[in-house]
Design brief:
Distance between the termini of chain B: 86 Å
Distance between the termini of chain A: 124 Å
CATH class of the largest domain in chain A: Alpha Beta
Structural class of chain B: mainly alpha
Radius of gyration of chain A: 36 Å
Helix content of chain A: 25-40%
Radius of gyration of chain B: 30 Å
CATH architecture of the largest domain in chain A: 3-Layer(aba) Sandwich
Number of helices of chain B: 2
Oligomer: heterodimer
Number of domains of chain A: 2
Number of strands of chain B: 0
Chain lengths: 582, 77
């Protein structure tokens, strides 16, 4: 019995043992299967429960002026969004949020009652707005961090720098032209989350590693401000429609200032007319008028047809060519080439042009860059209009000589005048001098680039001497004279062309272009006023603005004045108390 | 058995320390980001305060300064 019972127990143990062995083997097999064949899938599934992926766009690079002062920066800003399916009482939520943000309740209701899983409530909200909405403690609202562009100098060089849209893409100006370089890259990173879903121990890389590149402009904030202020005053004083002013360093082609009036605030560009958005100094061509006489005399001297003393009969102020009549502002008889520029005689310029010949005039103008883009690093540049000389009509060579039948951008004109200041060497204008990486290391540097020798240095010297007479007491540009500095310049008054292609009565573009000091030109300045109402002569309207800009800029640049009366710092108005010179 | 239980406790302690350190790192990273943001905002504020338009306004209206004439300027070599 005992033996039989023992056997039975052994059998039961064996059966149970086999059963457990099978179970363990099954578990082992399953474990082996999971660990060997399913491990990657399971690891991913587990990671999904404690890892949260994040996607973030890098910050847009900063735009600096020539002295590394911020002109355009990116700031962190919060946008308010909603997840409509997660909002329980949409009516109450819409009412409360609309009140906090000062928005239309119905508009907000339409958004919250939409079938979309995600809607924007307010992009780039102010800190106060974010605080107000957060205080409501509503379910289903999201506060997302975004980058927004901010221009701390507000209107300063606004059309030149341009601006970005809501999504951070460059829309105008340098922001548009260098969008690829300025834009930050997108990057993803993992954040570990705990049982409550709170993130911790993120694998974030430093922000600088995925930010966009920075740009350093040739523009100097102080010079830009001097230019904008003088331009604004000139537009107001002459009741003009608008104005443009450019300052260029003749030896390098660097743009020191590029100003427009009316002003534009890129922080709220959508509130301004679209025609104020673009950089008209580069994009808009116009008939230059008498400033073109500079290049006419340069062509005449360069090609050996005339000297500064060659005389021309100026027909006492009226000259009929076929059906057309050319007028001078004041009647003149015989004038030398120098005096033709000094008194800005159209008839004289016409005769110089005819004597020089179409081909020679055309080639000189081409060498000065007219009819071609300058290649500046800004978008939307116009090449202006200069027809090939073979297509010129009988009157064209003469008309082009005094600035009609040709169009050029303000940039082309100042580049060409700078070539005269630079001993005949035309430089490529540039406005961005360097691209820096996120850590401030130079990625690319833009060096001054000579384009060609437009005229010989001897011709340039002769033209300089002629242009100096324009700013003498009886010259048309006397108002452009500077205290302590010698000036070369030329006035320009061009009648505007209307939509029908005819010259519009009483609508003028007045300009003055010049450079100083003559012996060692540091700056070339161009001032253009569109439709001045009080007076339309460039010498009356634009020359005073030139003088103001050039005087203050040369002082700012520490250019020593000639014929200094005193070397002592004195108070300008000694009788007034508390007045100290800056 | 004692060894097994000890190992269990040590492992648990390590995990707790790891999580705790993770939270501390997150907190310090957030602080760092906040300070960087503050620094950037201060830089922007400096840029705004140093704007030529603002400086000129203060110089002319509050301090009564004027632009010097060319003969009044001394250039220090």
């Amino acid at each position: 019995m005992n033996t039989a019972k023992t056997k039975y127990i052994k059998l039961r143990i064996t059966v149970v043992g086999i059963f457990f062995a099978i179970c363990l083997a099954s578990i082992g097999a399953k474990a082996g299967y999971l660990q060997i064949y399913q491990s990657s899938w399971l690891a991913k599934k587990a990671a999904d429960q404690y890892e949260r992926p994040f996607k973030e766009s890098g910050k847009r690079g900063t735009i600096y002026d020539a002295n590394l002062r911020e002109m355009a920066v990116s700031i962190n800003i919060t946008s308010i969004a909603a997840y409509p399916p997660r909002i329980l009482n949409k009516n109450a939520a819409a009412k409360a949020v609309a009140k906090a943000l000062g928005m239309d309740t119905n508009l907000l209701k339409r958004k919250l009652f939409s079938n979309k899983p995600f809607v924007w409530i307010k992009r780039q909200a102010t800190p106060n707005e974010v605080y107000s909405v957060k205080s409501l403690n509503l379910e289903g609202l999201g506060f997302l961090s975004e980058h927004s562009r901010f221009y701390p100098q507000k209107t300063l060089a606004a059309q030149t720098i341009g601006f970005t849209g809501m999504d951070g893409n460059g829309l105008e100006g340098i922001e548009f032209y260098y969008d690829t370089q300025l834009k930050g890259s997108d990057r993803e990173f993992i954040v570990l989350k705990d049982a409550l879903g709170h993130g911790f121990n993120s694998e974030k890389t430093p922000e600088a590693d995925y930010s966009g590149s920075n740009l350093v402009l040739t523009i100097d904030q102080a010079i830009q401000y001097i230019t904008e202020k003088a331009l604004q005053e000139a537009v107001a004083d002459n009741s003009a429609k608008s104005g443009i002013a450019i300052i260029m360093a003749p030896r390098t082609g660097a743009i020191l200032a590029m100003a427009h009036y009316p002003l534009l605030n890129p922080n709220s560009y959508e509130k301004f007319d679209k025609h104020l958005w673009r950089n008209r100094a580069i994009t808009d061509p116009f008939e230059p008028g008498s400033t073109m006489k500079i290049f006419t005399v340069a062509a005449a001297i360069e090609h050996g047809n005339s000297t500064p003393n060659t005389i021309f009969y100026c027909e006492n102020g009226e000259y009929k060519i076929g059906k057309d009549i050319i007028h001078d502002t004041h009647p003149h008889g015989w004038l030398s080439l120098e005096d033709i520029v000094k008194y800005s005689s159209n008839i004289g310029a016409y005769k110089i042009g005819k004597k020089t010949g179409s081909e020679a005039l055309y080639r000189t103008l081409k060498d000065f860059g007219f009819g071609d883009k300058t290649g500046i690093n800004c978008p939307g540049e116009t090449q202006g209009t200069l027809l090939p000389y073979k297509k010129w009509s009988a009157i064209d060579a003469g008309a082009i000589s005094f600035g009609q039948g040709i169009s050029a951008s303000p940039l082309q004109i100042i580049s060409a005048v700078s070539a005269i200041a630079n001993d005949g060497v035309l430089m490529k204008p540039f406005i961005v001098q360097a691209i820096l990486d996120q850590r401030g290391r130079t990625v690319k540097r833009f060096e001054p680039a000579p384009v060609r020798q437009a005229i010989t240095s001897e011709t340039a010297d002769a033209v300089k001497k002629i242009l100096m007479t324009v700013v003498t007491k009886d010259g048309t540009g006397f108002n452009a004279a500077l205290e302590g500095y010698t000036v070369c310049g030329k006035t320009g008054t061009a009648q505007k062309i209307n939509e029908k292609g005819e010259y519009a009565k009483g609508k003028y573009i007045s300009s003055f272009v010049g450079f100083a000091p003559v012996e060692n030109p540091e700056i070339a300045v161009l001032v253009i006023l569109d439709e001045p109402m009080k007076n339309h002569y460039g010498g009356v309207v634009a020359a005073p603005a030139f003088s103001k800009i050039a005087q203050e800029t040369l002082t700012y640049l520490n250019v020593p004045p000639k014929n200094r009366k005193t070397d002592r710092l004195t108070v300008s108005k000694p009788l007034e108390k508390n007045k100290v010179v800056i | 058995m004692v060894l097994f239980i000890s190992e269990l406790f040590i492992y648990t302690w390590c995990r707790v320390q790891c999580v705790k350190t993770g939270y501390e790192i997150s907190k310090e990273t957030d602080n760092n980001l906040k300070l960087i943001t503050l620094q950037k905002n201060l830089k922007i504020e400096i840029a705004r305060l140093k704007a030529p338009r603002r400086i000129t306004k203060i110089a002319t209206q509050q301090l009564g300064l004027i632009m010097p004439k060319s003969e009044q300027v001394i250039i220090i070599p």
